[in-house]
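S.,

Sequence below, as promised.
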Amino acid sequence: MAKYDFERPLMELEAQIERLRTAGQDDPSLREPLEALVERAERLSRDIYSNLEPFQKVQLSRHPDRPYFLDHLETLFEDFAELHGDRLFADDPAIVAGFAKFRGHYVAVIGQQKGRTVREKVRRNFGMPHPEGYRKAMRVMELADRYRRPIFTFIDTPGAYPGIGAEERGQSEAIGQSILKMSSLRVPVVATVIGEGGSGGALALGVANRVLMFEFATYSVITPEGCASILWRDGGRAPEAAEQLGLLSPTAKRLGIVDEIIEEPLGGAHRDPLAASHALGAALERNLRELQELDEETLLRSRYEKFRAMGVLLEEGA
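The prediction came back faster than expected:
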């Protein structure tokens, strides 16, 4: 079943292919029609996914079949040891953090996890962290810095949780402290936007030496629905807001907000999660290798200069 309307024609064609493939096991004469349908499906897929509107790409970044942080963790990392709690209030399942082995290197990994089933979505709070989630992340960052372990962070959240309890426990302060902590780390830090990168909830894990972003991920100060509700008091105008927010990967790359775009399989990461994870792994390995050649002072200075340069505008003729 198609998750979104723009996918429906492709899903219907793929259902035909599957029926024909099943029938063709006993009928060799169906081989040619099957090959023609497969070729047609590939052309249709290229046509659909190369002509998406901005809000349709936002929908892809939220696709329920898209690989989440724990999917990439299982594929790319070994011997993961998770740490729980912030030693102040509670454990926040919306952020998963700990240490693991990545292609011969012992590293810290921190990621936002949305959850796939209804029960899991509720437990993970739909990937919207509380203050204790960011404080847990900082606890792991401090340990990684102390023992000189590179840090990988994975961003996938519509934003930090805006509830009363979170505000009472210092949501803004926790985000600010996380940004401050990341700016002072003496080890290589690579952040990757794997799905939604929303507001300060994303930036709290995004102050890195290298910021990567999947092709159909989004990175923005606010969700299109939230923007539309504030500007026009009409969340239904989210597609219009998506046009204006500049939240897609090519714009983020052009503005210097991200350093590299990770190409996704045809149709998006949800079409081939394993291939998407392998592409992510290759990008992480390459960037880690480059950053490990830099000394501590260079890591600190380059990270500082990278973020200070964001938002600088040059007037014409200046």
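The beta strands are 78-83, 95-102, 105-112, 151-157, 189-198, 210-214, 218-220, 260-262.

Coffee later?
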